[in-house]
Amino acid sequence: MGDNKVRVAIIGVGNCAAALVQGIEFYRNASDDQFIPGLMHPRVGNYHVGDIEITAAFDIDAAKVGKDLSEAIWAGPNNTIKFCDVPHMGVTVSRGMTHDGLGRYLKDRIQKAPGSTADIVGILKDTKTDVVINFLPVGAEMATKWYVQQILDAGCGMVNCIPVFIAREDYWQERFKERGLPIVGDDIKSQVGATITHRVMTHLFKVRGVRLDRTYQLNFGGNMDFYNMLERDRLESKKESKTNAVTSQWDTELDPDNIHVGPSDYVPWLTDRKFCYIQMEGTTFGEVPLKAEIKLEVWDSPNSAGVVIDAVRCCKIALDRGVAGTLVGPSSYFMKSPPQQFDDDEARRRVEAFIAGDE
Question: How far apart are CA 243 and CA 147, in angstroms?
Fold first, then answer.
């Protein structure tokens, strides 16, 4: 474009979108050469956080559609923490496609906006959007694939933040390559969340010579993500994604009865806070047992927003360079279910190499 902007559209104006929109404003003037709490990279290539510009947003909630994005992020059942005032943005939330995006439990909390689905492709083209972020609810398989086709037709890159598997699948990888477009996915990791903590501890057991015998990770919270996942049929891909992210750090296959990873319940008064309990049991020197227990409490949506900020800028760099298909390095570091799993030190090295143009 020549104006050093990263034009981004958002599908799903929930808590994750609210944290991201606040974060772009909060870090707009962050220093390039200092450690900034909450950011892994104030600048990625030529792009500062402040260069990210939201161009469009799509949702189906009657409380959000038709509102300016700065208002919509606080509408409906959204309940994340407010850490920044967001001025009027001039971006009106458009009516999106429903498909299977509204599960059995969410129907009790969300009223669908009237009217037909907006011209998604036309809006993305008219706003000259570079990258589209998928923040749909877990289990929105049909809706995600419908939106992917709109993204391809509009000629945009994609960051897939949910566990509907697109970037890791050969079929979709080829579709993005054919169009000359990049994608980062699937299923966003938090900066320091349940999955990354569990992965790092699993890798630590391995490199320090401790056999991992059994482990669990239990998560619960009070946002609509946990409420939606009370519908267990929508939870399968999430459990698969989180489990694979952990077991990929171990060389041998654990008996399925000895590993449990996944959300467990919804506690309304926690709002967007998430509690995680991890237990790991292993065998160390002399066949002596070892047990580790971890409790983690985070605000769920802000914990992933900084990772999304990096992912969209890597996607824009790929567009600038004409790199198409799934971005392996960024996907491995930012996502739970990339096409290739590495340990996190190697994944970080690959991201830095990608940013520098060496991968």
Answer: 26
What residues contact residue 311 under an 8 Å CB cut-off, 6+ apart? Answer: 159, 184, 188, 330, 334, 335
pTM value? 0.95
Give the amino acid at 194. Answer: A
Going by C-alpha positions, the residue among 180, 191, 176, 168 that lies closest to residue 310 is: 191
Instruction: Calculate ∠ Cα 306-311-316, nearest 5°.
Output: 130
| C-alpha of 166 from chain center | 13
Q: State how far the Cα of 241 lies from the Cα of 23, in Å rounded to an integer.
A: 26
b/e per residue 327-352 (b: at least 16 CB within 10 A): bbbbbbbbbbbbbebbbeeebeebbe
* Vertex 113 angle, CA 109 and 115, to 5°: 155
> pLDDT-derived band of residue 50, with 50, 70 and 90 as boundaries?
very high
Partners of 290 in the β-ladder: 282
- The DSSP 8-state label assigned to residue 257 in this structure reads G
Would you say residue 263 has pLDDT above 80?
A: no
- CA dist 182 and 173 (Å) reads 9
Question: Which element (helix H / strand E) includes 288?
Answer: strand 288-299
Average pLDDT over residues 211-230: 96
Q: Cβ–Cβ contacts within 10 Å for residue 280, how many?
A: 23
Share of the chain above pLDDT 90, in %: 91
Residue 199: phi, psi to the nearest 5? -60, -50
- CA atoms of 337 and 99, how far apart (whole Å): 24
CB 318 within 8 A of CB 331: no
- The pLDDT, as a whole number, for residue 225 is 95
**What's at 178, amino acid-wise?**
E
CA–CA distances in Å: residue 11 to residues 42, 218, 255: 24, 28, 37
Expressed in angstroms, the distance from the first to the final Cα of the chain is 24
